[in-house]
Amino acid sequence: MGLDVIARGQTARIVAVDWVAFVPEEAKRLQALGVEPGAMVSVAHRGIFAGRDPLALRIGRMVVAVRRVHARAISVTPEGPA
Fold first, then answer.
1. What is the number of domains present in the chain?
2. Beta carbons within 10 angstroms of residue 5's beta carbon
3. How many beta carbons lie within 10 A of that of residue 62, not counting itself?
4. What CATH number has the domain bearing residue 53?
5. How far is Cα 17 from Cα 14, in angstroms, rounded to an integer?
6. What share of the chain is helix, strand, coil (3-state, %, to 5)?
7. Is the distance from CB of 72 to CB of 3 less than 8 angstroms?
């Protein structure tokens, strides 16, 4: 399941990332911020416009904004309540 469909506030574990979907600089930045298999994430906020972009992801103590298309490239498994 892609990270783009996780409910706001639900915790999930990253199981895979399709790094080909990212520009190399974006991939490096996200890897440096802890987006990698095994990491726990949650959706803190979603955009308010039609595409619901961007998504604010909570990774550890950080909040990182990503586009919905990039969130879709991050496969997760739900861990906690929504």
1. 1
2. 14
3. 9
4. 2.30.30.90
5. 8
6. 25, 40, 40
7. yes
Domain range spanning residue 40?
3-78
Q: Fill in the DSSP letter of residue 8.
A: B
Of 79, 68, 81, 73, give the one whose Cα is nearest residue 41.
79
Instruction: Please check whether residue 65 is in contact with residue 54, taking contact to mean a CB–CB distance below 8 angstroms.
Output: yes
Residue that is written with structure tokens 């991050």 in the block: 74
At 38-73, the pLDDT tens digits run 999 999 998 887 767 899 999 989 999 999 999 999
pTM: 0.88
Burial class (CB in 10 A: 0-12, 13-18, 19+), 19: middle
Both tokens assigned to 11: 């915790």
* Cα dist from 76 to 10, 17, 25, 46, 50, whole Å: 11, 9, 22, 17, 24
